[in-house]
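Researcher: Here's the sequence for the chain we discussed earlier.
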Amino acid sequence: ASIATHPPSARARACGDARAAPASTTPGAPESSHASAADASNFTAVAPRAGSPTSHASESEAKAPPTHMKRQTVAERSRALHPALQLPRDSAIRAQLEAKALVEAVRDAYGKPMQVDGAENRSISLLELGVLVRHAQKNCEEWLRRVPGENDRLGIPWREVNFYDINLNLIAPLAVETGVAYAELFAQGQARKSPAAFVCHAWSQPVAEVYEALRAHASDLGYGEGAPVWISACAIRQHEAVDEVPATVPEAPFATALQAARLTLVVVSSADRGALS
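Model: Thanks. This is the structure I predict for it:
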């Protein structure tokens, strides 16, 4: 994959937000037992700086009081998911255990997840995205792939895992388990309002390809993997997607994040590069 970079002055239109695949009627995820510590054995924590609630919060943001969690049960959040994100029972139990293991490992370094108001304020560093990537790489052979009009398929090779897959099997179950978006696991309740980059990509692109392209770009431009970037899959709470993504573009969180970011990055796959040249 390659990246096209656009400064703020060159932004003519916002990239579309992520949408779920066409609906299915699969029942929602049931509650399940506590995950074992062994499930999180390959987790690599990125500790925040000493004296600061998060590695990206400004001094004024660090002093802001944490946002309280909304009082919802796991069952209520599960029912609120788009039907296309609701897994069959066995897969739902597996996904919930995976989500619990990931949350527990992140909590060791960052504390209990807290909500951050406004999806536009939920940027994430590439170091934190790497935690998600490594977890997906470890578990994707047990994941379910859902393609509209076809039967669900069990087991996805890592290099083929796309953002629809990671959302269905990990990000959405994590939102059901915790009530937060993936980025909120690391934010400690503090807003990250000025991302170094807004990332625009196709959800059909492989996660590994997008992640590798972003790491290379961060290295080439020198802003580093610790700088916050805005990625819709990590910023939107999937059980509240209808509320968090208004129908009008100017009010949508991705439009606000796009304007706040110093750069817009468009990730182009190798297959599409020729069509754009």
